[in-house]
Amino acid sequence: LDYSKLEANKVDLETTSFNLRELCDSVFRLMEKQAESKGLRLGMQIDPSVRLAMRGDPVRLRQILTNLLSNALKFTSRGSVTLIVNRRGETRTQHELRFEVRDTGIGIPRENVERLFRAFSQADASTTRLYGGTGLGLVICKRIVELMGGTIGVESEPGRGSMFWFEVPMLKASGDVRGLR
Q: What is the distance between the alpha carbons of residues 169 and 149, in angstroms, rounded to a whole number?
């Protein structure tokens, strides 16, 4: 994804039907080797109240999940990385969803958390040396989440891991929208 297009608000979101479970499964298949090579458990919990048929931009949603899971795996040397999807509520036309990526990794000091979502900024310079990366992944995630009408954040404690979360409204599948036929 062209970062300059995102910055200039020149990215249009797609709206298409997709199955959330299938999308999450496809992201997990991408991450399995990375998790296995580090001996990490990769888990997924989708709350049973979450409707799996929905409409939105599956490419952008996959991009956010891939980035957050990839980061979690990168910064976790033992333990687990888990994706949790919960239903926060709904309107007549939308599902309000919360996605959480929890890890048992290195964690992030409080004073560095606010920098994570700013362009070309990582928690600190040693992070770049040790783990690589440009520091743009989270900035791109934030911009996409905002384009989707959502919010993103992180809760973390050094040595105890991190939980990156985002909440977004997703359009209901045609058959789920009450009053519309």
A: 7
Angle between helix 20-38 and 58-74 (nearest 10): 20
Alpha-carbon gap, residue 45 to 153, rounded angstroms: 19
Provide the pLDDT confidence category of residue 65 given band limits of 50, 70 and 90.
very high
- Asked whether 50 and 94 are in contact (CB, 8 A), the reply is no
Element housing 21 (H / E): helix 20-38
Kind plus residue range of the DSSP H or E element containing 25? helix 20-38
Which DSSP state fits 114?
Answer: G
* Helical spans, DSSP H, in 39-176: 58-74, 110-113, 125-131, 137-147
Global confidence as pTM: 0.87
119, 139 in Cβ contact below 8 A?
A: yes
| pLDDT for the residue 166 | 98
- Express each pLDDT in 15-41 by its tens digit: 999 999 999 999 999 999 999 999 999
C-beta of residue 54 within 8 angstroms of C-beta of residue 172: yes
